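Posting for a labmate who doesn't have an account.
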Amino acid sequence: MVEPSSSDLAVAVRDARKALGLTQQQVANQAGIAPSSWSQMERGTWVPQRDSTRISIATCLGWNPEALHRLLDDTAATADMEPSAAFRWRRERLGLTMDELSQRTHRSIATITNLEAGKRVSSRTRSAVAWGLGWPEDAY
């Protein structure tokens, strides 16, 4: 089994913070952690272990409270899957409908259906859907 990568977490957290237009200092304060810890997390040198810390980080990024647990767990679980299966598995694991993912990513349900069916979609769409699922944009 492949271990979850702190670099996957680093990219996902950094991208989400930037999409919100926040500085590391701002999100660290909101999450109740030291700015140096946030910086280390974005560099992939620190992974929060405490549940309360993971939940507060996810919450300040506007993610489901369990998102960091899932991100770290799902990285290993989907390592050997075809991308289309990994996207579908992740969406279902998060309990998102295609409509909810469509709204989150500003992509049509038909596009998400095509992605999950293994049909060709643009790399931009693939990145947007990965981000919408809490993965780094370059996950697949």
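Reply:
Got it, the structure tokens are right above this. Confidence is low (pLDDT under 50) at residues 1-5.
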